[in-house]
Amino acid sequence: MEAIRCEKLCKTxxxxxxxxxxxxxxxxxxxxxxxxxIVGPSGSGKTTLISLIAGILPYEEGECRVxxxxxxxxxxxxxTTFRKNTIGFVFQSFxxxxxxxxxENVAVPLLLNGILPPDAEKKARELLTELDLKDKLDISxxxxxxxxxxxxxIARGFIHEPKLIVCDEPTAxxxxxxxxxxxxxxxxxxxxxxxAIIVVTHDPRIFSYxxxxxxxxDGQLSEKSLS
Length: 227
What we know:
Layout: E1 2-13, E2 20-31, E3 35-39, H1 46-53, E4 61-66, E5 69-70, H2 76-86, E6 87-90, H3 102-112, H4 117-130, H5 146-158, E7 164-168, H6 176-190, E8 196-200, E9 212-217, E10 220-224
Parallel strand pairs: 3-8, 3-9, 6-7, 7-8
Antiparallel strand pairs: 1-2, 1-4, 4-5, 9-10
């Protein structure tokens, strides 16, 4: 089943002589059951592209359908609801809420979807325990290492079981063992026949987890060999 179809997708920052075309006519199809890696140099447009796919940024030209829904055909209210229910985004900068505990941070997507706080926190604790953060459940994110914060952000990104999970450099702050643990969970627990995962990465250690790798440079995509 097709999860994502982008056709001639374009995104420009600025205008006039200072305009920068970050995404230039991208065509991309991602199927359910697929873990796709997007690789390429810094500044090539990778984060912009996944932000368009996740509905975080608007695009000027082209189409982007996620599970059959086109963002340009949605009202802002419908887009917000669609993203809340369908998409999990793991930000490179974590975007954790400093005044909440680790458990409370991870529970946020469930609360937004109407799950009662005790049930949301129970599920959050179970997931954090699985990510080897059992002794960090009740402390604030600022007391965690970079790698622990990354795992916390990843847990928050998929706790509500979205159909599309988009990750921006999810192993950037993790050692090899922890990075493998996170990718193994994404590939073998989170991914299923009804779900798709897109990962932007510079980390060649995780290439083996991909079903497909595409390379992005100067705002355009090309297929990349896994070998």
